[in-house]
Amino acid sequence: MPPKKANATNRVTKGGRLGHGPKWTPFEAWNFDRTARETIPGATCKQIDSFYADPRRWNAAGRPQRPRLPTLPKTEAENESACITDRARAALAEPVDALGVKYCYTCFECGRNPDDPACGVQCYDEIHSGGGTTGMKTFFKKWLEIRHTGTADKGYGVFVKTNGRYEIPKGSYLGHYVGEIVPGPSKNNMYLYEPQVGLEWDTDRPIVDAGKMGNWTRFMNSSCDPNVGEAIMQIGKVRVIAFFANKTLKSGDQLCIYYGDDYFTGHGLQCTCDEFEGPHDPTVVGAGLKARERQQQALGSQS
Ligand SMILES: C[S@@+](CC[C@H](N)C(=O)[O-])C[C@H]1O[C@@H](n2cnc3c(N)ncnc32)[C@H](O)[C@@H]1O
């Protein structure tokens, strides 16, 4: 029998699945003039709404496979058995990190501390299903859109819908960064985030890589005066990088975070945000500083 021809195009269909991975749903965006919708070209990136860990990547890195994150435990009973190892459970039960810093993340849904047994995976489900108090899927569809910024360097960005009738108040929870949880150190790309997320084990920090799969937050560009701040927080048992409005967001505003001092120089790039004329290094006097001040204010106002 002749060998089967590998054909990537017919293996992946819209609405189907890529291997055992998440659902294949390419991102769509408005063009710059907002006259046409386009599927983001060249995007191998799939839309997902929770973390995904590919066992093959963990195997390749010689690491034991720990969490099965694509399907979060649905019940507390399941939570106790298959999905979370004893070690990770212990880490979660003891809300102190290796440096002795007390975690003080509170759950979005129930407002409880992560070590409170009453805060469970149902909280995470609520947020994603559009239930509960936040309904993130609905929120994005209603208020935000991905649109081309009109410049090749910045590519696509996230904007408050131009036809929105309301403003998004300062302090609003906007969403959180999801992607593939990969064993660190990961092959560098433009979409890596390196917090402690979800479960922690050994001394390795899992990295959230939104290069191949992620949600709309991966399209947020960087600004030296960001209107979106981030904080590590907790939804049920899952630790997340959550985004908040630093200021009131109005129709047409682009949502921007600050990528940090090292991002642009680290990638051999320059920032071209609207805050400063022409390409610039955010660490030059005033730029990175302003972003940090704004970030501090945002974090301060949450505690
Ligand atoms: C996380 S992605 C953001 C989404 C991206 N614009 C896209 O179309 O996929 C990061 C990349 O966006 C571009 N970018 C984001 N903010 C920028 C800025 N202030 N100046 C220049 N390029 C920026 C850079 O190419 C960067 O590597």
Q: State the share of residues found in helices, binned by percent.
A: 10-25%
The set of bound ligands, ions and cofactors reads: S-adenosylmethionine
Supply the number of helical segments: 8
Given this structure, which CATH class is correct? Mainly Beta
From the alpha carbons, calculate the radius of gyration and give it in angstroms.
Answer: 20 Å
CATH fold annotation: Beta-clip-like
Task: Report the count of strand segments.
Answer: 14
State the fourth-level CATH superfamily: SET domain
Mean pLDDT: 70
Domain module count: 1
Distance between the termini: 66 Å
The major β-sheet equals: 4 strands, mixed
Query: Helices and strands: which structural class?
Result: alpha+beta
GO molecular function, one term: metal ion binding
Domain SET: 142-260
Pfam family, one: SET
Main location: nucleus
